[in-house]
Amino acid sequence: PLAAADVSGVWKVDGDVAGNPVKPACTLKQEDTALSGVCKSELGDSPLKGKVDGKKVMFSYDIEFQGQKYTLSYVAELISDTELKGTIDVGVAAGDFTAKKES
Questions:
Q1: E-strand spans in the chain?
Q2: Which pLDDT value is given to residue 91?
Q3: Is pLDDT at 1 greater than 80 in this prediction?
Q4: How far, in Å, are 14, 60, 65, 78, 90 from residue 69 at the CA level?
Q5: How much is the pLDDT for 31?
Q6: What single DSSP character describes residue 43?
Q7: CB contact at 8 A, 77 and 56
């Protein structure tokens, strides 16, 4: 069977949810199919958790925005070793994103 791709590294996310830019830098650490790490944005550092299933990459983390707590859930396809493309779901709204691996 094909091993899951290793997506460990720093990913620069470029996304949009309901007209709001979502542009964190996420450091992903992969062990087997489990993901951990942190996403850094202007709203602070948020620990993440997720998993890799073949070319599908899923992770989520919590942020606080204008006094409200939101969970950002990312579901993406690994387009290449250095590119992800998918959707961001925030519960109240959703949008699209791409991410490029920086290191």
A1: 9-17, 20-22, 25-31, 34-41, 44-53, 56-65, 68-80, 83-89, 94-101
A2: 93
A3: no
A4: 21, 13, 6, 28, 10
A5: 94
A6: T
A7: yes
